[in-house]
Design brief:
It is found in: Secreted, Extracellular space, Extracellular matrix. The chain has 119 residues and is an alpha/beta fold. It has three helices and five strands, in the order βααβαβββ. The strands form two sheets. It has a three-stranded parallel beta sheet with strand order 1-2-3, with no helix packed on it. A two-stranded antiparallel sheet has the order 4-5.
């Protein structure tokens, strides 16, 4: 994470990983070998950046072997919104304006959203 040189004032980030190159979001079967955050990567992000929203290009922000531990790091910070299941193929790296449009679900802890990136 440190080698990514994430600017201190950055608030929202989407991670386009090998999951996109492997087209995992288009496969019918769940693939446990997807790229996700390990506990130490999540902890570094929480402790060393001002990020408030993390988006990833597969069904979980956490690596399969660190599902609970990584999610707990993000959720215990109570400041970071997790956006999972992004389809980022055809989206080049860059700076975008982001709008997330959630469904209003009463009594729910999460919701499907539509994310709109504007260059």
């Amino acid at each position: 994470m440190k080698s990514l040189y994430i600017p201190k004032d950055l608030r929202r980030v989407f991670f386009r990983t090998l999951n996109t190159d492997r087209k995992l979001m288009f496969k019918k079967e769940f693939d446990t070998s997807y790229v996700g955050f390990m506990e130490n990567g999540a902890k570094w992000l929480v402790e060393n950046t001002d990020i408030k929203l993390v988006g990833v290009d597969y069904l979980s922000v956490a690596a399969y072997v660190h599902l609970v531990q990584s999610h707990l790091v993000f959720l215990e910070s109570m400041e970071i919104i997790l956006v999972e299941g992004l389809k980022l193929d055809g989206v080049p790296a860059g700076i975008y304006s982001l709008n997330c449009l959630p469904l209003r679900l009463v009594g729910s802890e999460a919701s499907p959203i539509r994310c709109i990136l504007i260059r």
